[in-house]
Automatic annotation (TrEMBL):
It is found in: Membrane. The chain crosses the membrane at residues 37-58. Residues 1-165 form the Major facilitator superfamily (MFS) profile domain. GO terms for molecular function: transmembrane transporter activity. Keywords: Membrane, Signal, Transmembrane, Transmembrane helix. GO terms for cellular component: plasma membrane. InterPro entries: MFS_dom (IPR020846), MFS_sugar_transport-like (IPR005828), MFS_trans_sf (IPR036259). This is Major facilitator superfamily (MFS) profile domain-containing protein. It is a multi-pass membrane protein. The lineage of its organism: Eukaryota, Fungi, Dikarya, Ascomycota, Pezizomycotina. Residues 1-27 form the signal peptide. Pfam families: Sugar_tr (PF00083).
Length: 165
């Protein structure tokens, strides 16, 4: 979490998702107990970081009166998904082997990583004009609320505003 406060939520989430993906692949391809234990330790660290960051991002995006419902929806979806995958894991292990669980985790993390910029906005708070990023300065005062920008759109706008050398 200190990394998220220092460099921002998206870079920290990106780092933890990549680390979790790598640890899932290492767990699926392990060659012994030590390798598997080390990969699971890295997976635990990065999964905890991802979970904490998602809760922090929910806190940033939603207003106080919306947070309770959003936290409950997030928690309910997590419990439903974990319960369903716990039931399915015995069938997966008997049909495809115990490593299939880690390959499913790795493919799910790859999908999450590739789609997070599309479906997740950075924030919905309106900031003072003096600290607006360049892509929000062009919005007139008649436009309310301003459009939500994804992280990839923010990067594109910042790249366009850089002076060329």
């Amino acid at each position: 979490m200190p990394l998220a406060f220092a460099v921002g939520r998206h870079p920290a989430l990106l780092f933890s998702l990549i680390l979790l993906f790598i640890s899932g692949v290492l767990c699926a391809t392990n060659r012994g107990f030590t390798w598997h234990l080390a990969a699971r330790s890295v997976a635990g660290f990065s999964a905890a970081q991802s979970m904490a960051l998602v809760l922090l991002i929910i806190q940033d995006i939603f207003f106080l009166h919306q947070r309770g419902r959003t936290f409950q929806l997030f928690s309910s979806c997590g419990v439903l998904l974990n319960s369903s995958l716990t039931i399915a894991s015995s069938y997966m292990a008997s049909a495809a082997g115990w490593r299939s669980w880690y390959w499913l985790l790795a493919s799910d993390l790859y999908t999450t990583h590739t789609h997070k910029d599309t479906y997740m906005s950075y924030t919905q708070y309106i900031r003072e004009p003096s600290i607006h990023p360049p892509y929000l300065l062009s919005i007139s005062s008649d436009t309310w609320p301003p459009p939500a920008y994804s992280y990839s759109q923010q990067l594109q706008e910042c790249a366009l505003s850089l002076p060329s050398s």
